[in-house]
Amino acid sequence: MQVLTGKAIMNQIVAGRLCFYRRPVPQIQMYTHGGWRQEVNRFHRAQQLAILELNTLYHRALNQVGDGVASIFLIHGMLLEDHDYVETIRTLINGQSATAEYAVQMAEVGFSAAFAAMDSPYMQARAADIRDISQRVLRALMGGRQTLLMEEPAILVSDDFLPSEVMDFDQRRLLGLITRKGSLDSHTAMLVRAYHIPAIVEVPLLARYEGHPALMDGYTGSVYIDPEQEQLETLRELYQANGRPKGLARI
Q1: Quick check: is 28 in a domain?
Q2: What domain range includes position 164?
Q3: Same domain for 63 and 11
Q4: Coil, helix or strand at residue 161
Q5: Which among 29, 22, 229, 50 is positioned nearest to 137, based on CA atoms?
Q6: What is the rounded CA–CA span in Å between residue 196 and residue 247?
Q7: Residue 107 and residue 213: Cα distance in Å, rounded?
């Protein structure tokens, strides 16, 4: 049994198989064969489509968890219309004959790095919001959709999860989330709390544990890889007063 420790977002116990979530990497062409005006127009069409999608997410979250958390997606909409963000993309397209996709990707890299370098943990956490809105625009440009289907119940693992990904995961099969990076101050953490999803951040979990059974102890921030039956029984008894730990019967 291997024991790793991170920072828990929710005081919950969950057990299940580990599944590593890997985002698809889009193949982006750097230079356009058309005019820069065409690429700027493509960007703005994708930007407006992304804003409409965010508005849909806002109303969905508003009905499910209330205005405080749902406002995350209003903030994302405002970030998409931020003057500096938009002008950076337009300048890359006009000045370098870049495709809209490449310009959005470069804006994502630059702005997310700038936020991540700030001293405030709150501002550092905004880097994930920049990545989220930029990925949404890229999907609109490339005609793709975010599909986050899960074949069976699992604990998902990634370097980090974006706010809109939390909304798109199949809640019936999602047992919990583990991130190797992440932040307690992120909008993702706010959504996780609102939807009562077990989650632990900053866990140095290696990819070789893909498919292994694991137990997340949200009371201590510990993750038990290949937990022993004795450990399962101890935790079951210890937290019985809080209800039966989710998924313990599965492993």
Answers
A1: no
A2: 2-21+148-250
A3: no
A4: coil
A5: 50
A6: 15
A7: 39
Q: What strands, in cross-sheet order, belong to the sheet with 7-8?
A: 2-5, 222-225, 213-217, 13-20, 154-158, 174-179, 199-201, 7-8
Q: Is the pTM of the predicted complex or chain greater than 0.90?
A: no
DSSP, residue by residue, 12-67: -EEEEEEEE---------SB-SS-HHHHHHHHHHHHHHHHHHHHHHHHHHHHHH-H
Whether 193 maps to a domain, the answer reads yes
Q: Looking at the 3D structure of the chain, how many domains does it have?
A: 2
Q: Are residues 210 and 239 in the same domain?
A: yes
Residue 31, domain member (yes or no) = no
Average pLDDT for consecutive 10-residue bins of the chain (251 residues)? 92 90 85 87 97 97 95 96 97 93 96 94 91 96 74 92 91 92 90 94 94 92 89 68 49 43
- What tokens appear for 175 in the block? 């047992």
First to last CA, the chain: 14
Instruction: Give the residue carrying structure tokens 């079951």.
Output: 236
If phi over 0 gives left and psi between -120 and 50 gives alpha, with beta otherwise, what is residue 182? left
Last residue within a domain, chosen from 142, 160, 191: 142
- Domain stop point among 83, 109, 142: 142
Rounded to 10 deg, the angle between the 67-80 and 126-142 helix axes is 60
Q: Which of 110, 123, 118, 203 is nearest to 161 (CA)?
A: 203
